[in-house]
What we know:
six-stranded parallel sheet; alpha/beta; Rossmann fold; single chain; five-stranded parallel sheet; disordered C terminus
Amino acid sequence: MIAAPYLLYLGNVNDEVGIKTSRGLAVFRPDECVGEFRHDGCELTLGLPRMGFAEAVAAGARTLVLGIANAGGKLGAELVADAQTAIEAGLDVASGLHHRLRDEPALVEAAARHGRQLHDVRDPRPDISVGNGKPRAGRRLLTVGTDCSVGKMYATLCLEKGMRARGMKADFRATGQTGILIAGGGVPLDAVIADFISGAIEQLSPARDADGWDLIEGQGSLFHPSFAGVSTGLLHGAQPDAILLCHDPVRPHMRGLPHYAMPGLEETLEANLRVARLTNPGVRAVGIALNTSKLSSAEAHRMCGETSDALGLPCVDPFSMGVDPIIDWINQCFEPSSRAAMPSL
């Protein structure tokens, strides 16, 4: 178990997407975050008190969370040095990067010497089986995206909160390092060997005999050349009854690929439904989730309304507008008396 409270690491990152893990914890687990650590070169903030390592320990922090993301998930020299200093100040260290803490001898030695713990969140469990595609009981919703980092985790967590507020049974199933830190468990899907991706999701969301929904956090995009393989395996393993499409309407191109344009919403829905039908022929779309954080309120509501009219599905920003229209649509879609009358999109 990763000991809370946390000190969230921003380092020298100035890319907002690059601090998404720290931001996710600050938003969804604020009571467990005592402060943020950032160098003078970092112009970003989570709105938490800025603290040094010793100061954070004095304030009750127990773990430094290296809540940043970079290309390849690497631990650089600066990050290793900061982690070592944090250990010496009395903090455990948790990381969701691909580069493991345990592979850095200086950190292993410092942790042993000071009695601290190193937590590599991106370690999949060793007993994952190859997926079999067999139908299994229960309802599942998967968030999918036009691109990486467009709000799939936020939408899934907001949907869980909204469903539970209405007395529905719903469980968030984390598939990335941020979600795992928030939920306390899950599968780091992009660290799973390709042959086992669908099996890992079958294991994460097994047969569900009770009423309610497994809400599975999506990863990547079928339209991103770097990560479409993960997205495909996730669609097959999830066997989703419902998909919720997430999109950033102001993004100019695919993340990290200026030579690839963003796909359209309708073609993205059609592609995801087509792939998902391999393991669940009855899958249907239940809504669009727009990340409108960079738009004015009036522009955000106008865009959601236009998108809903164009696609015939509810469209909201789950974080700023709530998810009630999507939940209403889900309930209507999956009432036995009304399913035949619902559109197939």
